[in-house]
Amino acid sequence: MRAKFRYSTVHPPHSRHGHARLGSDSSRIPKGDPYIFIAWQAAHANAWKAPSRDVMLMRMEKAERLGLTYEEYTLEILERGLHLQPKDTDRIAAIKAARKRRRVGRLD
User: Fold this and answer.
1) Rg (CA), the chain
2) pLDDT at position 77 over 50
3) pTM listed for this prediction
């Protein structure tokens, strides 16, 4: 589920030093449910928090066993919530094919 927000385009009045005046709303406040906005902010922060050393080593080992890079394996977990297994041959092949397309695209 993707939240849709519209940010207000009204700029607060600025002081002579270029900063927003005290008491003015200088932040971009999305229109919509504030709880959803705050929940998405927290989820985003948690998703990109560095994993512990043990989790990182475990992911590196699993990625190596599957023939993927750590980044590819981790991205699969973050995007799809899928912890790839050796039986997921179709998805692994698709990731490797995308890797080859990216390499060819860099040569242009």
Assistant:
1) 21
2) yes
3) 0.54
